[in-house]
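Translate sequence into structure tokens.
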Amino acid sequence: MNINWAALGQVFGVSVVMTVALVGVFTLGIVGTSGSREGGGSSTGLVRAGAYACYAACAAVVGYGIYLIVA
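Result follows.
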């Protein structure tokens, strides 16, 4: 049995980077939609739209991953 360690390392590296990136984008979405600000004000429309864009990006990445697994 021969293990391609370079390919395994690449898969591990890409998995770690994409996981951290996806969690970061989702966190930006949470921060954008949270109503608690230091000043006590609510989110502006632009911030909330950016947060929804973050959620859409997360959904697109998850959907693409499911597509890669199923196809």
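Note: The chain has a mean pLDDT of 89.
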